[in-house]
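Q: Structure tokens for this one, please.
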Amino acid sequence: MLTKQQRMAAERQKNWKITSPIITDESVLTPLLIFYVTDNIYFNSWVPLSNAMNSGICPKCGLPNELCICEEVAKEQQRISVKVSKRRYGKEVTIVDGLDPYEIDLEDLSKYLKGRLACGGTVKENSIELQGNHHDRVKDLLTARGYSIDHIN
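A: Here is the predicted structure, written as tokens:
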């Protein structure tokens, strides 16, 4: 059911249609680009941001998850540096730096790299640290994952 505030907001903006199955709580309504076609008339709808994430709609671009290109665009814009540093007792660590943690899921990428390289590692301060010298193999894996080879140093 719609609350009194939601009905008043719908009356103020006649061109907006609020659909009650989507709105389940009194969260702040966020306009997204969702169009309904009914008798060749387009209606926009207001969708709470928390429900947009659960309903298969990307909260950044407003497109369905199947059509969302946010992650591909973010991959093309990353300037990634891969370097090897020595730690205590001569141990080498490969550091993947330059990834934006707000656009790329660092935990997921770290898990992928650790699994493919059969090594340990962690995520620290917007960078991924992998145990061992994996400089060339990390570049190959990142390009296979969709990152541009021109943006990887």
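A few notes: The chain has a mean pLDDT of 76. Helices lie at 4-12, 49-54, 70-77, 106-117, 135-145.
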